[in-house]
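PROTOCOL LOG
Step 1. Enter all chains and additional molecules of the complex.
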Amino acid sequence: MVSEKKFKISINDRTCKRCGICIAFCPKKVFSSENGKPVVVNLDACTKCKLCELRCPDYAIVVGGEEDEQ
Amino acid sequence: MRKELEKYFRTEKLPHIWCPGCSHGILTGAVVRAIDNLKLDQKKICIVSGIGCSSRAPGYLNFYTLHTTHGRALAFATGIKLANPDLKVIVLTGDGDCAAIGGNHFIHAARRNIDITTIVFNNSIYGMTSGQYSPMTPKGSYATTAPYGNIDRNFDLCKLAQSAGATYVARGTVYHIPQLIKIIEKALQHKGFSLVDAVSICPTYFGRKNKMGSPVKMMEFIRDVSIPIKSAEKLSKEELAGKILIGEFYEEQAPEYTEEYAKVIEKSQEGD
Amino acid sequence: MSSKARLMQGNEACVEGAIAAGMRFYAGYPITPSTEIAELSAEMLPKVGGKFIQMEDEIASMGAVIGASLTGLKAMTATSGPGFSLKQENIGFASLTEVPCVIVNVQRGGPSTGLPTLPAQGDVMQARWGTHGDHPIIVLSPSYVKEVYELTIRAFNLSEKYRVPCILLMDEVVAHMREKVELPDPSTIKIINRKKPDPSIVNYEPYRDYDGDGIPPMASFGEGIPFHVTGLIHDVTGFPSTNAKVTEALITRLMKKIYDNLDDIVDYECISVEDAETVIISFGSTARSVLRAVHLMRQEGHKIGMIRLKTIWPFAYKAIQNLSSAVKNLIVAEMNFGQLVETVRASAGGRFEVSGLNKFNGELITPDEVIAKVKEVMGRA
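Step 2. Run joint prediction.
Step 3. Record the structure below.
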């Protein structure tokens, strides 16, 4: 899916333990589960509330592209 | 991990040892984010822990870190803070570590109002030893050592801290994470003994034994039973049964221990 | 500063020695017969800018001492038997994490609450093996008030030098006795401070043996280098490991840093042993009665001598092994049911008859009792 948004949501496969918390509690249903693994399916809906990032027990999610981090 | 947070972690030690869905990682992240939001001097922060799942947190954090004996984190931390009051001292502990074997140190650190922030990773169970009941396990819950249901009554750690003399007392949960980060920030800025009772989940031992389902289901449970203190005021005792009250319970400015000791030094040297 | 003679109690000499050695932190809990050490520390420490705290229990005071030492302060606690038992948990922590600290144990009659105000030497084995697991420890025992002062300084020095908890094992008699003491000019006292990491070290590893002497240099919390300290078995970086090789290397280094330096650590006094046929081994206040007995029996022409241990652990094996073959009997005089005697027996290796003179009723071993024991042993020979 091509997104209008300038930022991205990155998920670190190495540290993600597939707990599903990000998928379940995203207020905008941005994620979907692929055998437990979160995948971004609706980036356009993301409001960058970053609850997924704050609630990730494994620091595996970063919401926002490089321009956001400056 | 977000780039600006990497300096606070010993990233080479990650991924951490905690189980999938264990919210101790969320809490450790909240502590780091609070430190980052306040722009505290990393080289002036000492993090001390006891024994248990929670107490492994300092090992992942890039500060002066001390992993002590079971329950004793506050005793070591008291020595550190009194010896070097310039250090910001944070104790990360668990419900068993803090409220059972460390209970005496906890009430006395609170009584002295020594400037230490204590964050209790409260998951209602001894996780490291695989699921025995703690002083924070709700009555009626199951644990490996409570196979017929727990008959012990549990502590309200916030009430305990407040009556022991703590001057900042608050409770948050791993579901209400932005609020929890704010609470930790306030605790870190508070001069004196501050307690944050951080309600956490243990899907592996508490969750399974009590048939609570997945980490997501446990987070939903916490979400559904939590009530802000203000809203709770309007509820009856019956309505409050089984609820988790969250928010700031108490805040007071009172003489801090190491500052009082500085006066002792001054007094002892008068007339020399 | 001119030194002048003072009538001083053992516990008082301990605090004077500690402050002279550089003690700047004390955490303790009240217990007879060591309480004067806490009281005097509370009074004297703030005067030199140091810190005193009375903790909620014995365990906490040991923890606070270790915490303070990790920030770079020289720290001490004092207790007696029941408190010594409680402190063992964190003494083990200090041994494994190599945090210098001094623990004074003014022994009283035990076990349990025992005889709070009466003397004993019943903690000899607990001082060595009180905490669980293989661990290094140094234990010193003074016999005179002046020596309490000297050995307290030495306890700090050895603790700092070898990064090991050092126990000053006193007994109630030495602690509460008053004697005339002339304190030395502070400038003449030799003070040893812990080795700090060389500033040229990049990526400091807190448990790396940089100098090959088995003693890693020690940074302090607050100095700018973040590092991790844990009571788990750890590698040179300070982080936990369950690797067999790492574990073996750590425990071996911890033990060897003591056992490779016995000549520096072990101290004892030999009196009239050159031609002795009977040698009495003792320490603490008991050694005073033994000395009197040796003196009296020498006057009667008996070939008798003594070894007075100032370091109890590590044990003075050499002192026993170096005894001439003229020696027939060894007697170990101690206020307990027989503790050090077993170690002496092992050191003797069958060369000498070894017997114990033991008293464990809260009363001192008197010179007469020593003489009677020597005569009994000589009569047997």
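Step 4. Note key features.
The radius of gyration of chain B is 18 Å.
Chain B has one domain: 12-268.
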